[in-house]
Write a structure and sequence with these properties.
With 231 residues, the chain is α/β, with parallel strands linked by helices. Helix content is 34%, strand content 25%. It is built from 7 helices and 10 strands. Bound molecules: adenosine-5'-diphosphate.
């Protein structure tokens, strides 16, 4: 098998007296969608934050394409995050003062692209996410489902290799949640990006190629037999 795109090994992280991760790990290959599941407070988001280089683990390593992310200084780590990763959170976290088009163009503008080409590409992504009519509106003037599709467009616009999605449908009803998941997974597959999806909803995890379970700060691969999918 080829090397993974991203691998976290034996990750440990505490916040004061609270142990969030105690030997968690996960490997991610290009083009696959992996769901991280588990009860609330089990360490799922902390694992995502460590793998994405947002939080530095106390111990263990995160390697992205041969580079050790977990010991990289802040500056290069943020630069790598900006150029290689895309993020979708539960509440879109769009910039309220910007239009939806400007929000989607933002990652390109931050990496130095000129306004016109950045906005042209942003418009294409809004169309792909079937939310082009939101282009000139501000996030406060669109529905939750539309806002989340704008957030997915923003996560994908700079052609990331990995998309980190933390409860991306957590604030949506099931109809909008399923549309967001379908559009996110389709877009990722088309660009061969990997998706790391944190969710506690089996309905959302069903969009993944495989599942990893986190419990009490430890992770393990869910095998098919255990899930009752064989035999
Ligand atoms: P999950 O995503 O599975 O709900 P988290 O990774 O958010 O779990 O949290 C795991 C544990 O770490 C929880 O007990 C949580 O309260 C704690 N925790 C997470 N982030 C912080 C933080 N920034 N400061 C203090 N405690 C935190």
């Amino acid at each position: 098998m080829t090397d993974p795109l991203l691998r976290g090994t034996d990750l440990r992280k505490s916040f004061g007296p609270t142990v969030a991760l105690t030997g968690a790990g996960l490997a991610l290959w290009p083009g696959e969608v992996v769901a991280v599941m588990g009860p609330s407070g089990s360490g799922k988001s902390t694992l995502l934050h460590c793998l994405a280089g947002i939080v530095q683990p106390d111990a263990g390593t995160v390697v992205y394409r041969g580079e050790v992310l977990s010991s990289m200084p802040d500056g290069p780590r943020s630069a790598l995050r900006r150029s290689e990763f895309g993020f979708v959170f539960q509440f879109g976290q769009l910039v309220p003062e910007l239009t939806c088009l400007e929000n989607v163009a933002l990652p390109l503008r931050l990496s130095g692209q000129r306004r016109r080409p950045a906005e042209r590409l942003a418009r294409d992504w809004l169309a792909r996410l079937e939310v082009d009519d939101a282009a000139d509106k501000r996030p406060g003037d669109v529905s939750g489902g539309q806002g989340q599709r704008v957030a997915v467009a923003r996560a994908l616009v700079a052609s990331p290799k990995v998309i980190f999605a933390d409860e991306p449908t957590g604030a949506l009803d099931s109809f909008n949640g399923e549309r967001v998941m379908t559009l996110l997974v389709d877009a990722a597959k088309r660009t061969n990006a990997a998706v790391l999806l944190v969710t506690h909803e089996p309905r959302v995890a069903a969009y993944s190629d495989r599942e990893v379970i986190v419990r009490d700060g430890k992770s393990r691969q869910l095998d098919l037999e255990e899930a009752g999918l064989t035999g």
